[in-house]
Task: inverse folding
């Protein structure tokens, strides 16, 4: 019993010491911590001759009651827009006038008018965690900034080509193609049927699989292959392989486009749904097929097969169509669907309307007009649809 008593006393003593140590490491109650103070800054004049000049913003140190690593965020606001200019673990941040200007005039920034003087507000935040329990925000300061046109090149949605046995090992054919998802994201996605090329001169009988590589250019320069989870441009990369089938393909590349990974998600079908094809219930889904795939024995089988795989256009005919609303979707579900403008279909877009009746063909094209998209910095969706009378 004495032994248990000593253990109990020791445990109590240990807990007491631990609590004392924890108390030393706990932050002050947030209401006792003074918020940072962003120091006033003079107005900033930016012109073509001082773009390399530096601007420094500074603020007071925040004391949370123990030597924590404090993350400070520097923000600018204009109208309803707010942009974070920096994150720092010190009490100042320096950037060039060019970098500041490009952020402030960017649509992703504050959209300040170029070659004009605008009054903006700035503030700084402090935090010692990922939540908001210890988040503190300074009072804002105001200053005037005179801008110049941005020196940053506008982002234009970039293509990533797939070259393989199923499309004739021809990157210069520029198809199939995946499209970058958002501004400089280096993430490329799209719906692709990966064929095994059976019946063509490029069928690989040893495994009967689709063999392919990814090409940032419409040639073999910088082609990527090898391990799907960590492919590379090094040497002569090995083929990536997949069972024949329809996939949602998602490729993530590093900024230099020298390494990356791919996720292939099998897709059961793509279909048209809506009043134009009989109703919005799943039983009415009009399943589509890849357009242009030749029948076995066709005299021009190889060329037609490769062309169908490059184009990735899906089609279906609705007999006795009476017109009405419709949308396109994957897997007879609403998780992934497209609507809106047929020229540039958008995920989750509005219902589309057709007044055509009779035998009506519905198409959806995942390829896109590469040259037109490359010249359009408004970056519309590359996916398009069409509706026409069928023969």
Result:
């Amino acid at each position: 019993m004495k032994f248990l008593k000593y253990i109990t006393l020791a445990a109590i003593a240990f807990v007491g010491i631990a609590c004392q140590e924890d108390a030393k490491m706990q932050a002050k109650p947030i209401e006792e911590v003074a918020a940072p103070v962003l120091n006033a800054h003079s107005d900033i004049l930016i012109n073509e001759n001082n773009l390399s000049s530096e601007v420094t913003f500074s603020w007071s140190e925040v004391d949370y009651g123990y030597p924590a690593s404090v993350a400070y965020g520097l923000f600018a606001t204009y109208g309803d827009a707010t942009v974070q200019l920096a994150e720092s673990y010190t009490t100042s941040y320096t950037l060039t006038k060019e970098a500041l200007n490009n952020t402030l005039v960017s649509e992703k920034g504050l959209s300040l008018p170029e070659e004009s003087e605008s009054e903006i507000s700035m503030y700084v935040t402090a935090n010692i965690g990922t939540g908001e329990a210890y988040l503190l925000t300074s009072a804002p300061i105001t200053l005037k900034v005179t801008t110049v046109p941005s020196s940053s090149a506008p982002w234009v949605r970039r293509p990533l080509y797939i070259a393989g046995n199923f499309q004739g090992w021809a990157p210069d054919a520029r198809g199939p193609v995946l499209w970058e998802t958002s501004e400089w994201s280096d993430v490329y996605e799209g719906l692709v049927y990966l064929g095994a090329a059976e019946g063509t001169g490029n069928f690989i009988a040893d495994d009967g699989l689709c063999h392919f590589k990814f090409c940032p250019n419409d040639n073999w320069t910088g082609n990527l292959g090898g391990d799907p989870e960590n492919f590379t441009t090094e040497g002569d990369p090995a083929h990536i392989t997949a069972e024949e089938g329809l996939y949602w393909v998602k490729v993530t590349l590093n900024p230099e486009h020298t390494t990356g990974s791919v996720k292939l998600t099998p897709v059961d079908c793509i279909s048209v749904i809506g009043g134009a094809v009989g109703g919005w219930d799943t039983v009415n889904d009009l399943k589509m097929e890849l357009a242009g795939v030749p029948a076995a024995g066709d005299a021009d089988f190889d060329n037609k097969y490769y062309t169908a795989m490059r184009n990735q256009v899906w089609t279906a005919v609705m007999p006795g169509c009476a017109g009405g609303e419709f949308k396109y979707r994957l897997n007879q579900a609403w998780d992934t669907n497209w609507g809106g403008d047929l020229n540039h279909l958008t995920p989750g877009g509005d219902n589309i309307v057709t007044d055509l009746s009779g035998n009506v063909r519905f198409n959806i094209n995942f390829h896109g007009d590469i040259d037109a998209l490359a010249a359009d910095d408004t970056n519309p969706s590359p996916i398009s649809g069409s509706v026409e009378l069928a023969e």
Residues 159-389 form a domain with the Immunoglobulin-like fold (CATH 2.60.40.3620). The chain has two domains: 30-146, 159-389.
